Amino acid sequence: MTRLTTVTRALIAALATLLASAVLTPTARAGTDPEAPKDFVALHSVDPTILQEMRYVTPHNFVGEPIDGYRQPLCILTRPAAEALHKAQRRLLRQGYTLKVYDCYRPQRAVDHFVRWAEDLHDQAMKGEFYPNVDKTRLFADGYIAAKSGHSRGSTLDVTLVRLPAKPTRPYHRGEPLVPCFAPRGARFPDNSIDMGTGFDCFDTLSHTLDPRIQGRQRANRLLLRTTLESLGFVNLPEEWWHYTFKPEAHPDTYFDFPVARKSLTSAH
Question: Is a pLDDT exceeding 80 seen at residue 226?
């Protein structure tokens, strides 16, 4: 009887160990983040003079909280896109401007975060600034939110121009009064960008690069950005004055999901 009990206990222990291993192994693997391919680089390693104001690592965005996958305020791009942006920066510095990026590579998990937010019609905390005139039920139909983003392929960025010498943009304070992104420059959030007619990520037709209502200095500023970047291989998204993709894309059919962090690049370089 004692021998049988001992054998039974041994079998139970062995089975328990086997089950624990089977359960923990997938969990351990799931906790390992994917890494960036070797042709992805941190923009500052190619051009440290380009300003970076990475909005999605902060709560100052249309969701109102830091976005999944953004662990550090870091612009990551494919090397060809980063090198072309460096060429653009050299031209603009001679004219008294610097580029400033708001977003670069965007992991798929961040896009998924946007989709979950868009599906939650009760969460409209940032409506007053980013989409005052757009009903949230229209975000998918009107193309403001989608299940996939070109940013996840690594050659797309959101960018603006800042007049030199660059003044700092004051920090956003969660809960502060919101002003529509298309309000006059002196009224909307005080970004140090030159006046492009709207703020970044403004869900409104006024953000269309060539919207006829944007004239004068605002139109000239948009055209300076577009002309400079397009001469070096970037293509503008007509609905967003800030959105550019370097062509040909290094990864035209792949949507990556490694986090925005220096660690994602460490072992790949």
Answer: yes
Strands 156-163 and 243-246: antiparallel
Residue 29 confidence (pLDDT) above 90: no
Token representation of residue 91? 């031209």
The pLDDT assigned to 24 comes to 37
Quick check: is 240 catalytic? yes
CA distance 130 to 178: 9
| Cα–Cα distance, 22 to 45 (Å, whole number) | 42
Q: Quickly list H helices, the chain.
A: 2-30, 43-46, 79-94, 108-119, 127-130, 216-230, 262-266
For 101, phi and psi rounded to 5 degrees?
A: -100, 140
CB atoms within 10 A of CB 244: 26
Active-site residue among 53, 129, 240, 249?
240
pLDDT at position 157 over 80: yes
Is 75 in contact with 36 (CB distance < 8 Å)? no
Mean per-residue pLDDT, 114-134: 98
DSSP string of 78-123, one letter each residue: EHHHHHHHHHHHHHHHHTTEEEEEEE----HHHHHHHHHHHH-TT-
Whole-angstrom Cα distance, residue 197 to residue 193? Answer: 11
What does the DSSP 8-state code read for residue 137? G
- Residue 55 has what DSSP assignment? G
Q: Which amino acid is at 36?
A: A
